[in-house]
Structure formats: C-alpha cells, structure tokens
Design goal:
Strand content: 5-15%
Number of helices: 8
CATH superfamily: CorA soluble domain-like
Strand order of the largest sheet: 1-2-6-5-4-3
CATH architecture: 2-Layer Sandwich
Order of helices and strands: EHEHHEEEEHHHHH
CATH class: Alpha Beta
Largest sheet: 6 strands, mixed
Structural class: alpha+beta
Number of domains: 1
CATH topology: Beta Polymerase, domain 2
Radius of gyration: 35 Å
C-alpha cells in the first residue's frame, strides 16, 4: 500500500496463515462480531491522522496518539487503554538509544497502534500472525509487544556491558582519548536508555493493576513478569552507568599518574643538566683567565669534570628518591 495511505497492516484476530491483510475498505466493513481487529498505521501519514480523528475515540486518546514526542504512559479511559511504549531503535544506521515510540489504543474489540519509525517488535508480531501464530486477543497483544520490546532492550544492554568490559580491560593499552570517548559513549547510552525504560517499568506495573474486562489474570501475571524483567534491566543500566563513572575516574587517575611521571622525568633531567650547563657556559666565555684554555687536554679535563658532577647528581637524586 502506498505510504501516503498510512495503513501499514490490518488483520482480524485471531488470524491464520491464510488470512489476508485488510485495506481501508475492509476496515470500514469490519464488525465486532468478526473478532478483534488490529490496525497498525504510520502516525505521520495524513490518511492515518484523518482516520484517528474520525474514529470516535476519546479526544484525549486522539491527541495522545498523534502527539510528537510522548513519554511512556498508560491511561484507562472507560474500558479502553491508551498506552505509549518506547523501544530501542534497531533500524539500520540508527543509535539504539534513539528510542522509537509506539502509541496504542486497545479495547475489547480493537487494537490500534501508530508509529513513525519502524518498530521491530511489531514486525515480529506481524511475522507470527502471517504464519498462523501471534496474539489472539487485545490482552495477549499488549503482552506480546511488551515482551518483545523488553527482550530487545535486554540485548542492547548486554552489548553495552560487553563494551564496558572491553573498555575496562584495555585502559592501559589504548590511547586515553579513545578510552574516554568509548566510556563516555557507554555512559551516555545507559543514561538515555534509563530515561525511558524506568517510566516504562512503572507503566507496565500500573497496566497490570488496571480493571479492564478484556485483560485476563493470565495477562496481568505476564505483564508483572515483564515489569520485573524491565526492573532488572533498569538496575543493569544503573550498574553500567556507575561502572562507567568509576572507569572514567580510573582513567583520570592513570592519566594523572602518567603526567606526574613524565613531569618528574623532565624535572630530574632539568636538574641534572642545569649545573652542567652553567659550568659549560662559564668555560665557554671569551674572556681571560679561563682554565686550560691553552692546554691541549683541557677539553678532556672539563669533560671528565662534568661527568663526575653528573654521576654525583644521579647518586644524590636516587638517595633523595627523586628517581
């Protein structure tokens, strides 16, 4: 279907492998007796926006489904559910922490979801429905979406932790600038992911306690399990953020130690050559009275004298533990 039509997919639940996807005409002809219907649309498409405004949904739900940058939320309106969930962005050339939003309205007969950027959790459900599997009811649908989004977030967090492990192990082997950039990127991603996953955990907990006739006790238990999994992910993000902070502090300590060591070497070198330079300067003055100026062995005498002074300085620096 052309993108300007806005309809990505529409199916009657439960479906089977032979069930075809509906178009706008099929949606208009649908009746509740046919079974629950799922509509998935592009929020930016004019046709989708027009359909939402003419759908008879509560005005609050209409505004929330079409707003630009919503945060995770769940609100019960009558026997319907307005829900906004965030998932990691796993589209090509995208940053996972650039979260994608899925807006939805669910009641006993309809599941309406809207997105702008592709949500892979929805693609998984489409694939399962195309093979005769997938959710059969609105309650199962919201559980499936929450599970898929949480699983994908878990994969991204696992990769963050692996990257952080690599950064910790390679502090001494790669450049300070590269280490700082990699650790800061991990910390930034952890903070950004937590910004949306933490309220999403609260959304799922609230959703499991809502008094919706079409949400079964099995659905509630599944949502509570997903919320517990999301709680563990949020804790992992907190741990990753703290580890990144500690690793940055270790890197700064290493940098300070290396700088101090280099400064000490330069200071010792300066202290070693200062008296030698003074003596060499005095002996090189073009005035009368310079010792051994007429002696053929004068150069070697002065050289030996400077070597002796250098050895004495080295012995003194070691005794004073400057080296």
């Amino acid at each position: 279907m052309p993108p300007e039509h806005g309809l990505i997919t529409a199916r009657v639940l439960p479906g089977d492998a032979s069930a075809r996807e509906l178009g706008w005409e099929g949606i208009a002809q649908w009746q509740p007796a046919d079974g629950p219907i799922w509509l998935h649309m592009d929020r930016k498409a004019p046709r989708s926006q027009q359909w939402i405004r003419q759908s008879g949904l509560d005005p609050v739900a209409q505004r929330s489904l079409l707003e630009e940058d919503p945060r995770p939320r769940a609100e019960q309106i009558g026997d319907g559910l307005l829900v906004v969930l965030r998932g990691v962005n796993l589209n090509p050339d995208a940053d996972p922490e650039d979260m994608v939003a899925l807006r939805g309205w669910l009641d006993a007969n309809r599941v309406i979801t809207l997105r702008h950027r592709k949500v892979l959790a929805i693609q998984d459900i489409r694939d399962r429905l195309a093979t005769g599997g997938g959710p059969n009811r609105p309650g199962e649908f919201i559980v499936a979406v929450a599970e898929q989004m949480t699983d994908r977030a878990g994969d991204v967090i696992d990769r963050l932790e692996s990257e952080l492990d690599t950064c910790e192990e390679s502090l001494e082997t790669i450049s300070e600038r590269e280490s700082r950039a990699r650790i800061s990127a991990v910390r930034r991603q952890a903070i950004h992911l937590r910004r949306y996953l933490s309220p999403q955990r609260d959304v799922l907990v609230r959703l499991a306690s809502m008094d919706l006739t079409w949400l079964t006790e099995r659905d509630r238990c599944a949502l509570r399990d997903v919320s517990l999994g999301l709680t563990r992910l949020v804790e992992d993000l907190d741990a990753a953020r703290d580890r990144a902070t500690v690793t940055l502090e270790e890197l700064m300590a290493l940098t300070t130690e290396r700088l101090t060591r280099r400064t000490t070497v330069l200071a010792v070198a300066a202290g070693l050559f200062l008296p030698l330079t003074l003596i060499a300067s005095l002996m090189g003055m073009n005035v009368g009275g310079i010792p051994w100026s007429q002696d053929a062995s004068g150069l070697w005498i002065i050289t030996a004298f400077l070597v002796i002074i250098a050895v004495l300085e080295l012995w003194l620096f070691k005794k004073m533990r400057w080296m």
